[in-house]
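Lecture 7 notes: from sequence to structure.

We start with a single chain of 232 residues. Read the sequence below before looking at the structure.
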Amino acid sequence: MIEDLERIDLLVPADLPAGWQMPDASPIDPDRDSSQIDHALRYEQWVDPVPGQDRRLHSSHNNTDTGRWFLIQHVESNTRVLLRLQRQYLLDEEPKGEVRITGIVYLPEWAGDSVASPMLRNLPTSRIEAAINRRQFAVTGASRFTGGTMTMPSGRTLRAEDVMKPLGNPKRTPDFYEVVALQHARLVDDGEPNPTARMADLSRVPLSTAQGWVARARRKGLLPPGRRGRAG
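Now the structure, written as tokens:
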């Protein structure tokens, strides 16, 4: 699974919400230029407040060498944004790292122009991260609905409208955790603030049961790792 994730592109045009695009002729090559950008920005260094002293911070679980910079563009304003993407691993989770935005550089359409404050506030970072991670994990990366149906690992056909039905019994339902992941992803896409609680309501089970289902789906690599402090 780790090797499969490393082969997937960190960012593709479909990951961007409406109104944003990846320029066709980007001057930034993520693989060629990212280390130079990191170095120019001193990204890999932490400067100690004591004058004359500095030191490098080495993470025990995240290698900054894996970060990649991508150029995206806001269609209406032509503002360009450099996003630094990096797969991050938590020590107490299985090693299926979630991609996160770890750096942002704004470039207005014309050199010397100011960056409008609404642009700073409205950059859809969470939506971009969510789209990337849904694509990179098995629930949407390896299986997609075509013509309103999806062929599941067991060979059965799942209809898109059946995703939001009660989930049933894990021991008796084929592809149970794949459907758990699909239902969770659908609720997240719909803006549900606590998708796991909503799943419990739909299936008429205790919240703890639904939480266990989602946790198992994450361990199986069907959903991105959960984030601390975030519901669902």
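The CA atoms of residues 166 and 203 lie 4 Å apart. Keep this in mind for problem set 3.
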